[in-house]
Amino acid sequence: EAREYERNSFMPIKNEAEKLGIKLETLYKATNDINREITGEAKRGNYDLLLVGGSHSLFSNDVVGGKVKTFMEGSRCHVGVLVDRDFEDAKGIAVLLQDVNDLFLLSFAECFIVNNGATVMLADPHRLLKSNLTFSRAFDKISRAYPERLQVFESHSADPHHIQAFNLMLISASGWKDLSRTGHPWLQALTSVLILKPQGDDI
């Protein structure tokens, strides 16, 4: 019975992985502490990214609370929380750069460009790409290789309609908290969101 449940549970994602040509390994285990099992497996497997689903309202920072917070605090790899609002593909991506700790988001943006052929809009209201040398070098490296795939938006005036043109928004966990606390206008217009915690950091 357990094996049949495992087979049926993973069948949809296995079928999709086969269509996309993605190698997929699955792990099924009965446990009384799912949080501990997942974070433990993430550590043992030396993974680059632990991806989980947000279980609360998009319009509250509770999306990174509860079990999700446990994953973020207990994992040393990158952790991503996907808030799914009819997400289908990652062809148009907005990346919100809030402060110097968001440098790692540029690496994720580059991965989406390389692997998905995505177009990326970097929202940079504090002009980190111009004022911070490390940001500037990282941006120049990507823009030289993919000049047609990058846009920069520096304005502080956050028109909610602007963000609706994108399929997915990337934002750091600390940036998400700031967005939620200030009631940023983009919150009402966001499509799907990938909230990311950098490797080794605590939230």
How would you describe the overall organization of this protein?
The longest helix is centred in the first third of the chain and has 19 residues, at 2-20. The model has no long low-confidence stretch (mean pLDDT 84). By secondary structure, the protein is α/β, with parallel strands linked by helices. The protein has helices at 2-20, 34-44, 66-74, 104-116, 128-131, 133-145, 160-163, 173-182; strands at residues 49-53, 78-83, 92-96, 119-123, 150-153, 168-172, 192-197. Helix 2 (34-44) runs parallel beside helix 3.
The largest sheet has its strands arranged as: 1-2-7-6-3-4-5
- Assembly classification: single chain
Helix-strand topology string:
HHEHEEHEHHEHEHE
Helix run count? 8
Euclidean distance between termini CA atoms: 40 Å
Label the overall shape. Answer: globular
The beta-strand count equals: 7
Beta fraction: 15-25%
* Radius of gyration, taken over Cα atoms and rounded to an integer in Å: 18 Å
- In the predicted model, the low-confidence regions spanning at least 5 consecutive residues are none
Question: Structural class, from secondary structure content?
Answer: alpha/beta
Largest sheet: 7 strands, mixed
Mean pLDDT: 84
How much helix is in the residues?
40-55%
Structure in a nutshell:
By secondary structure, the protein is of the alpha/beta class.
